[in-house]
Design goal:
Layout lengths: L6 E4 L6 E2 L1 H14 L7 H5 L6 H9 L7 H15 L5 E2 L3 H10 L3 E5 L4 H10 L8 E3 L12 H9 L7 E5 L2 H10 L2 E5 L16 E3 L5 H11 L1
Parallel strand pairs: 1-4, 1-6, 4-5, 6-7, 7-8
Antiparallel strand pairs: 2-3
Length: 223
């Protein structure tokens, strides 16, 4: 890397955690509550990373956008019961976060998911204090791919965009990083194939987020 990374910011779903079982349960509950046809688990999983409003539009069509608030209410109603129990950290995530923190990097999470849900998952797994800041859906006025969340997280941890690396699993994450002018690494643990990142400035594409450790720490040692 031509400039040392001083802060690493992560997406949440399909990057640090697998929440697909919880998302499928909650979206299915919300669609049923609106009287809409059910969606397949595969179709629902392809919406992970979108805002809840855009999830409804993706699955029900633009005609359903006016009912986004009710869809969100129904989703959250079910998520309060099942989301954290059905969410699991990907292998290697605890070791990655603690190694990056021990190396002196500042850490953040920026997600279209609600912040309190991410906090509950990290708290459950003993990692809440490892991350310096979390920016979720309730903290911003514009969701990714808008760069607002990334720029807010960078300010909170005192890092210039040029010193930040953002890791995410979707082209929404890649676009947000591009707009925020931060470096980006694509992660293939979601539903997005490697070729989809070809249209974006990408430092690397890795199979899993734990592969970031050598990429970042070896670069710091050579700097």
């Amino acid at each position: 890397m031509d400039r040392e990374v001083r802060a690493v910011i992560f997406d949440s779903d399909y990057t640090l955690v697998d929440s697909s079982r919880g998302v499928v349960a909650c979206v299915s509950h919300a669609l049923a509550g609106l009287g809409l046809l059910p969606a397949t688990p595969e179709a629902i999983c392809r919406t992970i990373g979108l805002s809840l409003e855009e999830t409804l539009v993706a699955l029900g069509g633009e005609v359903e956008r006016p009912r986004a608030a009710e869809f969100t209410r129904l989703f959250v109603e079910r998520a309060n019961e099942v989301m954290v129990p059905l969410t699991r950290l990907f292998p290697g995530v605890p070791g990655l976060l603690t190694a990056l923190r021990a190396a002196g990097l500042r850490l953040g999470i920026v997600s279209n998911k609600f912040r309190y849900r991410i906090e509950d998952t990290l708290r459950r797994d003993g990692l809440f204090g490892v991350v310096d800041t979390i920016v979720g859906a309730e903290d911003i006025t514009a969701h990714k791919p808008d760069p607002e969340g990334l720029l807010l997280a960078a300010r909170r941890i005192g890092a210039a965009p040029a010193d930040v690396l953002y890791a995410g699993d979707s082209v929404i994450d890649a676009e947000a990083a591009h707009r925020a002018e931060v470096r980006f690494v694509g992660v293939l643990s979601g539903t997005t194939p490697a070729l989809a990142f070809a249209d974006y400035p990408t430092l690397a594409v890795v199979q899993r987020v734990a592969d970031l450790g050598p990429l970042i720490l070896d670069g710091r040692r050579r700097a």
